[in-house]
Structure formats: C-alpha cells, structure tokens
C-alpha cells in the first residue's frame, strides 16, 4: 500500500477495474502536496470536478499533476480546465497523455491557459487526438510571451515517468 510523502506528494497507479473515490482525491490534494500522480487510476469526470476544485483553492500548492492513461475525454478536460484557469492555480506540469482528448479538449485547455498563463510550463498531450486546430491553439502559447509554457508534448512521444502502486 502506497503512502504519501510528508512534503512532496503521492505517486499512484491503479488497475483499470479499481476506482479512486472523489473524496479521497480531494482530501489528499488539499494537504497541499507538490505533486500528485494518478496515472492509470480509472479516473472519471467526477474526479476531474474534484481536482478542479482543489486547483481553484487558495491553499493548493500543487505543482505537478499526472493524469495520464485515464479515460478523461474532452468533458473531463473541460472540467479540469476550470481549475487551471483560476488565479489560485499554481500548477507547473500537467500530464494528460493517453486521455482520449480531441480538439474540443485542447480548446478548453487553451482557453484556460489564456485566462491564467502565468504558471503552467509543461503540458503533455501525447497519445491523444488534438487535431490541427487544437495543436495550433496550444502551440501559439509557446510563442506568446505572456504564457510560461515551455514544453508541449503531443503525437506519440511520451516522457518516461515512474508510477507507483495506488493505495
């Protein structure tokens, strides 16, 4: 059973048939961890609502959020984007690799980043289907001096990141 680090965060990975309760996500994220890895945890759109709420919180210090390989789809990303656009969001790295995101989800992300461009530096959208217009919107952020976005991953390139077992 995994345990959170006292100051840095929680790394997790979960088998597809298991569910991580929304309340559990909110409680642990509200502890102000610096990173939270929830790759392959079968997260739902309700989970995205809870995560968005935490990102909007004044007390959140979350810097890295890895939601890779979850079935979030565009609606989940749209819900998550309401947290990213908050002036209280301090997220620097967002990994959404393999989350079934299309142009619609990229539009939500681009809109959120236009509203709050000051923190996010790295966005991983590899193994999704952003389409040309979705990539154009987000790629424009790399050139915009108001955005801090330095790294945009897309296509079939994936950064390697160690995942830990879910609790």
Automatic annotation (TrEMBL):
Protein keywords: Leucine-rich repeat, Repeat
SMART domains, A to Z: LRR_RI
Signal peptide: none
One Pfam match: LRR_6
Keyword Transmembrane helix: no
Superkingdom of source: Eukaryota
SUPFAM superfamilies per record: RNI-like (SSF52047)
PANTHER family assigned to the protein according to its UniProt record, in alphabetical order: NACHT, LRR AND CARD DOMAINS-CONTAINING (PTHR24106)
Designated name of the protein: SPRY-associated domain-containing protein
Organism of derivation: Oreochromis niloticus (Nile tilapia)
Source organism phylogeny: Eukaryota, Metazoa, Chordata, Craniata, Vertebrata
């Amino acid at each position: 059973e995994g345990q959170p680090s006292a100051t840095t965060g929680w790394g997790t990975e979960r088998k597809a048939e298991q569910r991580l309760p929304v309340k559990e996500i909110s409680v642990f994220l509200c502890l102000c961890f610096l990173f939270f890895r929830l790759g392959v945890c079968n997260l739902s759109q309700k989970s995205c609502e809870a995560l968005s709420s935490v990102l909007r919180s004044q007390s959140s210090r979350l810097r890295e959020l890895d939601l890779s390989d979850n079935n979030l789809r565009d609606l989940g990303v749209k819900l998550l984007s309401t947290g990213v656009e908050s002036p209280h969001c301090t997220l620097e790295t967002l990994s959404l690799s393999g989350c079934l995101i299309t142009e619609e989800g990229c539009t939500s992300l681009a809109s959120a980043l236009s509203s709050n461009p000051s923190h996010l530096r790295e966005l991983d959208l590899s193994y999704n289907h952003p389409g040309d217009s979705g990539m154009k919107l987000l790629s424009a952020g790399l050139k915009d001096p108001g955005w801090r976005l330095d790294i945009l991953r897309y296509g079939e390139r994936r950064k390697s990141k160690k995942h830990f077992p879910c609790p």
